């Protein structure tokens, strides 16, 4: 939908995103949207409508709410849009934390399968790549990773791989020990999680 001559309106099912470079543009676009929805017999619910100013700077303005057509829209610092966490600082760290929490929950749901002797390693790796990894990588195409985030993602992947490849008996001490990162890299022939993200 074009508002004021440009595309500034994204809609998916009942989720609508109105874009604007400033608060005045946003208000104009929101007013046009409210009018357009009213013409089609739809209604914008003020209690479910929020707005957010995204800026890398600490001071993104002081306006706390916006009034449109006798409805007040609350300003928020973060919200979920189509399953992705957005913050007013445009920081991806919170989204990656959220994806890793979801990945951990998924990992724990299949945790008992991974050390099972009844499943082949190939099948266990498939479980990781087809069930756990997509949960973590949802929306990763828009991520700009820092070294800290890359490390967190690798730590998560290594935790899962250690469960799949199991501890090894040390040749000298004869004691069981967990696999080192380099050993995991050799055993897991697929690209690591960071490479997968960068390839998308």
Give structural notes.
The chain is of the alpha+beta class. It folds into 2 domains: 2-81, no CATH class; 92-199, no CATH class. It has 6 helices and 11 strands. The protein has helices spanning 23-39, 93-110, 121-137, 147-165, 181-187, 193-199; strands spanning 2-3, 6-7, 9-12, 15-18, 50-51, 65-68, 71-75, 78-81, 84-87, 168-169, 176-177. The strands form 5 sheets. Strands 5-7-6 form a 3-stranded mixed beta sheet, covered by helices on one side. The longest helix is centred in the last third of the chain and has 19 residues, at 147-165. The two termini are 28 Å apart. The model has no long low-confidence stretch (mean pLDDT 83).
Number of strands: 11
* Major beta-sheet overview: 3 strands, mixed
Strand order of the largest sheet: 5-7-6
The total tally of domains equals: 2
Give the low-pLDDT segments.
none
Give the helix level as a range of percent: 40-55%
Q: Radius of gyration in whole Å, from Cα? A: 23 Å
Q: SSE string, helix = H, strand = E?
A: EEEEHEEEEEHHHEEHH
Structural class: alpha+beta
What does the overall shape look like? elongated
Mean pLDDT reading: 83
End-to-end CA span: 28 Å
Helix count equals 6
Percentage of residues in strands: 15-25%
């Amino acid at each position: 939908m074009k508002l004021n001559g440009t595309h500034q309106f994204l809609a998916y099912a009942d989720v609508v995103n109105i874009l604007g470079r400033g608060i005045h543009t946003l208000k104009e676009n929101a007013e046009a949207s409210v009018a357009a929805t009213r013409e089609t017999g739809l209604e914008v619910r003020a209690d479910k409508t929020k707005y957010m100013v995204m800026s890398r700077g600490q001071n993104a303005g002081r306006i706390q709410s916006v009034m449109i057509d006798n409805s007040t829209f609350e300003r928020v610092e973060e919200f979920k849009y189509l399953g992705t966490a957005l913050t007013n600082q445009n920081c991806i760290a919170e989204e990656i934390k959220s994806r890793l929490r979801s990945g951990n929950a998924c990992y724990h749901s299949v945790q008992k399968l991974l050390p099972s002797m009844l499943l082949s390693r190939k099948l266990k790796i498939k479980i990781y790549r087809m069930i756990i990894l997509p949960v973590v990588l949802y929306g990763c195409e828009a991520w700009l990773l820092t070294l800290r985030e890359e490390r967190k993602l690798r730590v998560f992947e290594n935790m899962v791989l250690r469960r799949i490849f199991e501890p090894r008996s040390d040749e000298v001490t004869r004691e069981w020990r967990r696999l080192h990162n380099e050993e995991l890299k050799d055993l897991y022939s697929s690209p690591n999680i960071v490479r997968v993200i960068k390839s998308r």
